[in-house]
Amino acid sequence: MDISALPIIADGPVHEHRTVRLEGGLDLECGVHLAPLEVAYCTYGTLSPARDNAILVCHALTGDQYLAEQHPLTGKPGWWNRMVGPGLPIDTDRYFVVCSNVLGGCMGTTGPRSICAETGKAWDSAFPPITMHDIVAAQARLIDHLGIDRLFAVIGGSMGGMQALTWAADFPDRVFAAMPIATSPFHSAQNIAFNEVSRQAIFADPDWHDGQYRDFDAIPARGLGVARMMAHITYLSEEALSRKFGRRIRHDAATAVPASSSPSLFGEMFEVESYLRHQGSSFVRRFDANSYLTITRAMDYFDLAAEHDGDLANPFRKSQTRFCVVSFSSDWLFPTSQSRLLVRALNRAGANVSFVEIESDRGHDAFLLEEPDFDRTIRGFINGAAEHAALLAGEG
Amino acid sequence: MRVDQRLIAEMIAPRARVLDVGSGDGTLIDYLYRTRSCDARGIEIDMQNVTQSVAHGLPVMHGDADHDLADYPDGTFDYVVLQRTLQAVERPREVLRQMLRIGRYAIVSFPNFGHWRLRLQLLTTGRMPMTAVWSTPWYSTPNIHPCTIRDFLVLCEEEGYVVQQWLAIDEDGARAPWRRSIRLANLFGEQAMFLLRRAEP
């Protein structure tokens, strides 16, 4: 089973994402003015007449806006289907939930696949570098467009948590509650290192063509697939891999060694290999390599303390936002120690902060999986914050 | 809610900012929030308790008295509460200092090691006392810094803390009637509770 041998849909089937086109565009931190700005998004539930029940959910590196509905390209359920919906922890009977594709993404929001107004051609590898602040600024335009002054909550895991923190830092008056999950206030050297390996895998692909692969009707599927395989390992844990696959060998017709062939070093395949290859090959069908590079770079740049005179408390001083920081015990990509750093900074800022480490052996991806304690934490924090908000509204 | 928690709650003014260090299942902060409109937050060392509290919508963070008080700015809270925990922290004096740095008042309760039953047991058996309050053997007890009511008063004097209010209570939390005599309270009080503030400069 070779990744490059799999059928690949270069641009995916044509699908109309729900998108808002903002002619005013966006001034990026790098100085480029991006216009127009398109933001693709999904919403669930109903915005209250007072417009005070909106929850923005921010997706992770390879996620998208299809939070709680079938994905139009993969046909799979939404990535947080089990968390967002009527009666679920993020209850769409009570809250108006918004999720948008990040700036630089490839699911309808302006990104490397978009047309550059100046050249009339797709940006591709010429897409300007973006930061977490740019990503959040683009979301803020969408929130403006939806007529929402203040978000009741911003919630996100992993890179989504970086966005939740950035929202609280950049727009303190517009965020009543923030829930950064399995995340960090800075991207660690180890994580930058992993991203760099991912990027080098893409650059090494003969189909990369200096990022102009679409001009050649190609995509660097092998490189992007390897990038995904490597990254996927970092989302799991040794324990989870052992439990799920152990050292089992996969025996099926597709991978069996043909009778005629001589014994070969790679004649058999461990189940974990097969799993990773599947992860790689399915990923390249829905994700664009230039988007992957653009967004991983935005994560690498992320360091809230460095931007605020080296003190992580600075962006949160006088913050009225209620925070709930969540980490997972076996997450080694965004370990609890980094969440604790964040919590201490929030304490230094005098902010209202809850902090829970959820016991789980499933690594970073635990935030996407069935973890009853995590579900209870999200539900409890949101309900507690809502009660507090109602109390404040009653006083006002 | 335990009776001693109710006594603590009575010491706290409505709408105050409160940090409960060792908030357990969150009973006290829940009570203060609901009945006194306090901005009450908790720090708790036991993760089960933390999860339970946050799942109930209470602002509680995982942490402990020895390591997590130093982060807060001066005067963040009106009251900082430490219930039945002082004897189990690594550095009781430093914890008290931090409490009175980040809060205007500190409310501290601890089991009194001067209680007559403990004295008698040590005297008659020559072994470490074991009672309902001091129920774990010396080699596995988390209570590494036991003190008596008089010990605590000496520390307060050394540190320049003003004892605004104090009371001795029995294990069930009922107020004990030795309010005028420290000597008697130290002999008959199973638990002690203090409301402290810094001396005016």
Automatic annotation (TrEMBL), chain A:
Listed GO biological process terms: homoserine metabolic process; methionine biosynthetic process
Entry annotation: catalytic residues: 158 (nucleophile), 331, 364
Binding-site residues for substrate, renumbered to this chain: 228, 365
Annotated Gene Ontology cellular component terms: cytoplasm
Enzyme class: transferase
Location in the cell: Cytoplasm
AB hydrolase-1 domain sequence ranges: 53-370
Catalytic activity: L-homoserine + acetyl-CoA = O-acetyl-L-homoserine + CoA
Main location: cytoplasm
Pfam families: Abhydrolase_1
One GO molecular-function entry: homoserine O-acetyltransferase activity
Alphabetized UniProt keyword annotations: Acyltransferase, Amino-acid biosynthesis, Cytoplasm, Methionine biosynthesis, Transferase
UniProt pathway: Amino-acid biosynthesis; L-methionine biosynthesis via de novo pathway; O-acetyl-L-homoserine from L-homoserine: step 1/1
InterPro entries according to UniProt: AB_hydrolase_1, AB_hydrolase_fold, HAT_MetX-like
EC number annotated for this UniProt entry: 2.3.1.31
Family, as annotated: Belongs to the AB hydrolase superfamily. MetX family.
Subunit field text: Homodimer.
Its job: Transfers an acetyl group from acetyl-CoA to L-homoserine, forming acetyl-L-homoserine.
Protein name: Homoserine O-acetyltransferase
Automatic annotation (TrEMBL), chain B:
Domain of life from the UniProt record: Bacteria
CDD domains: AdoMet_MTases
Annotated InterPro entries: Methionine_synth_MetW (IPR010743), SAM-dependent_MTases_sf (IPR029063)
Pfam families: MetW
Official protein name in the record: Methionine biosynthesis MetW
